[in-house]
Amino acid sequence: MITIRPIPAFSDNYIWHLQQDREHWVVDPGDADPVIEVLGGAHLSGILLTHHHFDHTGGVKTLKEKYDCEVFGPGSIEGVTHPIQDGDQFSLMGCDWRVLSVPGHTLDHLALILEAEGDTHLFCGDTLFAAGCGRLFEGTPEQMYHSLSRLTSLPRDTKVYCAHEYTLANLAFASAAEPGNQAIGKRIAEAQETRQQDRPTLPSTIGLELETNPFLRTQSEEIRTNAVAHGADVKGNPVEIFATLRQWKDTF
Question: Catalytic residues, which ones?
């Protein structure tokens, strides 16, 4: 049985730690120190990377040197020993993994999907957040919209492991974009209670994101109306509505 736990890093990053018996893997280790501390005397089998930003890769060199471990990720990242790309499938810890290309936040961004014990787990880096999505540093609105559509085609009970604790800030924007959505208010209350207990609000699920994430709800008339109020064309297609929401969120 695989256990998945967050390792807090920096001010709001999560490095995801996967363990199966004596086998240990981490996803997006921006900092080596908290990983080494959590492992204690255990050996790190390998690293999985979603994209090249330093807060996701900064610990790779140290961890690779210390543990002589494998590194799976985009071939554009220095230190990767097993380059992966869209459509790839592989096995780790006795479980099946597959890779989706999800450009937008960065052009090399990948999402990693784990199938384990009948459950689907999505490691999406900075593409999909709880109640939000990543900024468009390199890609276009069209690319990010398509990438998010790929992720939301996964089963609704898919567990979503994004890389930052942005949930409350994202929900504040969601509430502004769609104030009539009661599911958002309920999620805010739950997230506030969770954070007061110093617990992570993650993982989320695809189903919850479809109900409360404005970037996945461009079909909502209330969101469209508020997007038009922030510059979208009244006849704008879903990509144009998404682009306006993303620009609005950037300055929210």
Answer: 51, 53, 55-56, 105, 126, 164
* pLDDT given at position 19: 98
**CB burial readout 24-50, b (16+ within 10 A) else e:** bbbbbbbbbebbbebbeeeebbbbbbb
* H-helix or E-strand spanning residue 112: strand 110-116
Q: What pLDDT is stored for residue 101 in this prediction?
A: 98
Domain covering 3-250: architecture: 4-Layer Sandwich (3.60)
| 3-state secondary structure (DSSP) of residue 161 | strand
Give the whole-angstrom CA distance, residue 128 versus residue 101.
13
CA–CA separation, 24 and 141 (whole Å):
36
Mean pLDDT of the chain: 97
Residue 24 CB partners (closer than 8 Å, separation 6+): 17, 18, 39, 42, 43, 44, 45
Model pTM score: 0.97
Virtual CA dihedral for 119, 113, 7, 26, nearest 10 degrees?
120
In the chain, the largest separation of any two C-alpha atoms, in whole Å, equals 59
Q: 18 forms bridges with which residues in the sheet?
A: 4, 25
Measured CA to CA, the distance from residue 48 to residue 80 in angstroms comes to: 9
Does a cis peptide bond (omega within 30 degrees of 0) precede residue 203? yes
